[in-house]
Amino acid sequence: MPNFLVIGHITRDILLSGGFAQGGTATYAAITAARLGAHAAILTRAASDFPLTPDLDGIAVERLPATATTTFENRYHNGHRRQTVHSVAPIIRVADVPAPWRQTPIVLLGPVAQEVDPGLTAAFPDSLVGVVPQGWMRRWDAHGHVSRQPWANAAAVLTGARALILSDEDLGHDPAALAHYQRLCPVVVLTLGPRGCQVWQGNQMTAVPPRPSVEVDPTGAGDVFAAAFLIRLAATGDPVQAAHFANVTASFSVEGQATDAIPSLAQVEAWLAQHPPEAQSSL
């Protein structure tokens, strides 16, 4: 039985250098959970011939049928990303969750392309459910060009969630949207990249500073943060302590390529032991 389950599409990410890599919140969050000592599992959809990364060895993967794997291509110009989706696997619904997995203590919903049924939070009434909403905030045109859109089903998703983790970019730098999510979810964490994060509990905000790092590849850092945050929140019940732990975990992960630098539990705890956390609260 897993004690950490992430639901969402694993993705085929086309590389500019040629070939492809496996990505998606499901990939990065599950690998992080496993390296932090959890028994991780993934519920996903992908074509049967899509090869899974060896980093998933030891992680339970329930691959639902699909004729195609969700495929993204990212191109950068003057620091701005142009994202194209080439194919999208079908939606993952409540009925797709294996019955034994509905008792998983920690569940992360991590859509990348509108593929997670908003009603899935209701399938885990006794679980700590966290949400990374980026995939509900994306739309694409007939050519696959991806753009932002408002999160239309936020209320349906967050009704059964304990924690929402999103970036300032996801938010669109919109304080009204942040206030709306605060009313819907007990804990909202706004990640700020190298500036750390903010933990919101109602109207109370705690700023949590980052661990200094030398960034090599930021891919998946938000997903690493989300997995680490939920694991430590489940262990301590303290969102601020969980955010310190997640900041450190994510900062290690950007110091290498792809999933290579995602740290072990021992690495994170050793750094925290040598650097007592600090936080600043404000209204």
Walk me through the structure.
The protein is α/β, with parallel strands linked by helices. It has helices at 25-35, 154-158, 168-171, 175-184, 221-236, 239-253, 265-274, and strands at residues 4-7, 11-14, 20-23, 40-45, 60-64, 71-77, 80-87, 106-109, 128-131, 138-140, 146-148, 163-167, 187-191, 197-201, 204-208, 280-282. A hairpin with a 5-residue loop joins strand 13 and strand 14. Helix 1 (25-35) crosses helix 5. The longest helix is centred in the C-terminal third of the chain and has 16 residues, at 221-236. It is globular and about 50 Å long. The mean pLDDT is 93.
Keywords:
283 residues, alpha/beta, ten-stranded mixed β-sheet, four-stranded mixed β-sheet, 7 helices
Structure summarized in a few sentences:
The protein is an alpha/beta fold.
List low-confidence stretches. Answer: none
- The H-and-E topology, N to C, reads as EEEHEEEEEEEEHEHHEEEHHHE
How many helices in DSSP terms? 7
Overall radius of gyration: 17 Å
Give the DSSP E fraction (strand runs of 2 or more residues): 25-35%
What does the secondary structure layout of this molecule look like, with pairings?
Blueprint: E1 4-7, E2 11-14, E3 20-23, H1 25-35, E4 40-45, E5 60-64, E6 71-77, E7 80-87, E8 106-109, E9 128-131, E10 138-140, E11 146-148, H2 154-158, E12 163-167, H3 168-171, H4 175-184, E13 187-191, E14 197-201, E15 204-208, H5 221-236, H6 239-253, H7 265-274, E16 280-282
Parallel strand pairs: 1-4, 1-8, 2-6, 4-5, 8-9, 9-12, 12-13
Antiparallel strand pairs: 2-3, 6-7, 10-11, 13-14, 14-15, 15-16
Helix pairs in contact: 1-5, 5-6, 6-7
